[in-house]
Write a structure and sequence with these properties.
With 436 residues, the chain is of the alpha/beta class. It contains 16 helices and 16 strands. The chain has 2 domains: 109 residues, Urease, subunit C, domain 1, CATH 2.30.40; 299 residues, Alpha-Beta Barrel (TIM Barrel), CATH 3.20.20.140. The protein is globular and about 65 Å long. GO terms for molecular function: hydrolase activity, acting on carbon-nitrogen (but not peptide) bonds. Keywords: Hydrolase.
């Protein structure tokens, strides 16, 4: 019996030693303070039981705390993508949406798990998934991811997109119209709009997404106002897919919390958004991504270059004007493409670089993907900054993110989620280094 007890104790000690440390002291070369929008040099981060206990340059090692030397790295809060579609993988073909929607539900969940993990490994510790996920498959995926921190980002979901008749499309072939009922919740009146929100609340969504405009119809003012009123009464925010100015302005007037895309926004609409506190999620792409995406639809040479440049010039101008007018910017990728040359994680994180390519300083674009996004989600008290009392969702980039942004943004050294190393899962570090 004594031998058995000794063996069990040794086995238990081995299991414990194999578990990631819950107490960490991490040395970094630079740390991004997302609230103040500044980079601090030679900082240490003390983490206990998934929470940041202290941050500063002179923190001493404590017994029982694992020291990790990442002095070559820049630390930022875990990145937040406010516009994902983890359950959609669409080819750049005329029937891409139809084919992606025909994938069986179980397969879409498995696919979503892969994309979630790729996002996590790219530094995204939180995502907001905005539809194109069947009938509440996003709720199911969220529950699956919540079972283990290393499966993927923390997920906030919208359920089916609320839309005018026709979903997000113009005229569809009868054989393809199944997509509308499968992927959307069509609104037929103001009362139906109210009921749709209550349906979503019952299914456990975190946010309501509305599609303000199809190719040929907008939600009416009464319908969008009913959606906003009912959602806010139930403690849920509303964000609106609005690609052009008229639909975006109507959504802002109705009281939505955010505008997705907003590719064509007038100065007057941007001023209204700033006055009302309506945030903008610019789902833009990098120059590299634009080139690959344009070539993916068959354009070549100068035609492709001119098309990509025209689009980028337009969205860059819109973003700079939004910033100048005082609109809150929140990062969101809308990356759901099945395109060779753009891995899912890189495509998602690339949107942050696209803002910098528009001429926005690094210190600002990082805030869009951390502090601003956390505020828009209503979780800024626990997420989106590296300071005492915050959840230890942290990304460590290998290099100087402040001065070599375009390269370092895609060089993730380590990701912590609630204080646990989720990428890679094994850390190196010795207590001796901490005392030097």
């Amino acid at each position: 019996m004594k031998l058995l007890l000794t063996t069990l104790l040794l086995l238990y000690a081995t299991i414990l030693s194999a578990q990631p440390s819950r107490h960490l002291l991490i040395q970094v070369g630079k740390l991004y303070d997302s609230e103040q929008k500044i980079f601090l040099s030679n900082q240490r981060i003390l983490i206990k039981n998934g929470v940041i206990v202290d941050v500063g340059p002179h923190l001493n090692q404590i017994a029982g705390v694992k020291f990790v030397d990442l002095s070559q790295c820049t630390a930022t809060p875990g990145l937040i993508d406010m516009h994902t579609h983890l359950l959609l993988h669409q080819k750049q073909t005329s029937d891409g949406m139809i084919l992606a929607s025909k994938v069986p539900a179980k397969e879409r969940i498995k696919q979503g798990m892969v994309f979630a993990r790729e996002n996590l490994e790219s530094g995204l510790t939180t995502v907001r998934d905005l539809g194109n996920s069947g009938q509440y498959l996003d709720v199911e995926l969220k529950k699956t991811l919540a079972k283990s921190k290393d499966l993927g980002p923390t997920m906030y979901v919208s359920g089916p997109i609320l839309s005018p008749p026709g979903g997000q499309f113009g005229k569809m072939a009868p054989a393809d119209s199944f997509v509308i009922n499968q992927e959307y919740r069509v609104i037929m009146s103001a009362e139906d709009a109210r009921l749709a929100v209550l349906e979503h609340v019952k299914h456990g969504v975190d946010i309501i997404k509305v599609c303000m405009n199809t190719d040929n119809r907008m939600l009416t003012i009464d319908e969008i106002e009913a959606i906003v009123k009912t959602a806010h009464e139930n403690g849920i925010s509303v964000t609106a897919h609005a690609t052009y100015d008229k639909s975006a302005r109507a959504a802002v007037m109705a009281g939505v919390d955010g505008i997705e895309h907003g590719y064509d926004l007038s100065d007057s609409t941007l001023i209204l958004m700033a006055q009302r506190g309506t945030y903008l999620v610019p789902t833009d792409v990098t120059k590299e991504q634009a080139k690959i995406l344009v070539e993916g639809i068959g354009m070549k040479g100068k035609e492709a270059e001119d098309y990509a440049k025209s689009f980028l010039d337009s969205v860059h101008d819109r973003l700079r004007r939004a910033v100048t007018k005082g609109v809150t910017i929140v990062s969101g990728s809308d990356f759901y493409n099945d395109v060779v040359g753009i891995p899912r994680g890189k495509g998602a994180v690339g949107v942050i670089l696209s803002y910098h390519e528009a001429g926005i300083p690094v210190k600002d674009v990082l805030q869009y993907a951390t502090y601003n996004a956390a505020k828009a989600l209503g979780i800024a008290e626990s997420t989106g900054n590296i300071k005492k009392g915050m959840k230890a969702d942290i990304v460590f980039f290998n290099g100087d993110l402040e001065n070599d942004f375009a390269q370092t943004l895609f060089k993730v050294q380590m990701v912590l989620k609630a204080g646990l190393p989720v990428y890679p899962k094994v850390m190196s570090g010795t207590s001796e280094k901490a005392n030097k």
